Amino acid sequence: xxxxxxxxxxxRKGGTTMFHRLxxxxxxxxxxxxxxxxLYAYFPHIISSDASTNELWDRLEKVIFLTLxxxxxxxQVSINIDSLKSLFREKLYxxxxxxxxxxxxxxxxxxxxxxxxxxxxPIVVKETSxxxxxxxxxxxxxxxxxxxxxRDPRDNYAALKAGVNSYYSKMGESEFTTLAxxxxxxxxxxxxxxxxxxxxxxxxxxxxRFEDLVKDTEGQMKNICTFLDIPFDDHxxxxxxxxxxxxxxxHDGQKMTGVSDENISRWKSRISEEEAMIIEFAFRGIMExxxxxPEFPTKDSARAYAEYYKWSNYHxxxxxxFAAKP
Length: 326
Description:
Elements: E1 5-9, H1 16-22, E2 30-31, H2 38-42, H3 53-74, H4 81-91, H5 100-114, E3 123-126, H6 134-140, E4 144-150, H7 153-161, H8 175-200, E5 205-209, H9 210-215, H10 217-228, E6 240-241, E7 244-245, H11 267-270, H12 273-283, H13 286-289, H14 298-317
């Protein structure tokens, strides 16, 4: 696959869906409309398994096409999914089912062909694991640029916490496991945002803050156009899904049209002080590099983190040697 790719990445509930939808409809770009999901829902665990070819196909088709179907349905957009799936099957061979480059290439080229899009235009792809896989992605697709969205981890956790009872609990998450997930993953993401521009080059990788994007959407998107070497287009200030205007994607039940700065710094009313202190201690140092300033004394944050550690160590790492049979 020789298309130019633009990977959008960032931690879940960090604004990546909104960011992705700003690119929909730009005259110089093609946009794959949903999160690719392959790098975290199909790889890496499936390639180390002893799954049969049929099981691999079944998993892959669920990951790609169920995700696509759900989004199309929620936006009342209709395409022939079966036709797209058949085209994908024609482009991907059994021996490629453990090859992420072949899978991603087949999916994106199938989408371009199926939708009758201009194959010479860059393809915008949202994949929340792309910052971690950036060096590998460049090996697979050398003509790639990355844009990472970074968000205040306290607000990021507040957005996640709002969805625990209605959504994440169905996947076995509690508020505490969601907090542990944020500390593990978002901290990694922020480190990647700092290091990747120097690792793979500033012309290939850039990071912007969610807060700057929603407060000055036009200015930030103009900067992104310079980075991507494309003309600015008014479509870049409005969110849409395959040409249909969209509202905000949040778990609070709020109806926010397009881009909104309503939830900036709302963590103060959405999460507990203890949760905020735990996050501040875990992210202390790296938060400040993105100008997210702590609110609590280090002594208090350290004490809160100690309580969090007691739970997380027991939950994830502790092995009880006294429970073993003699």
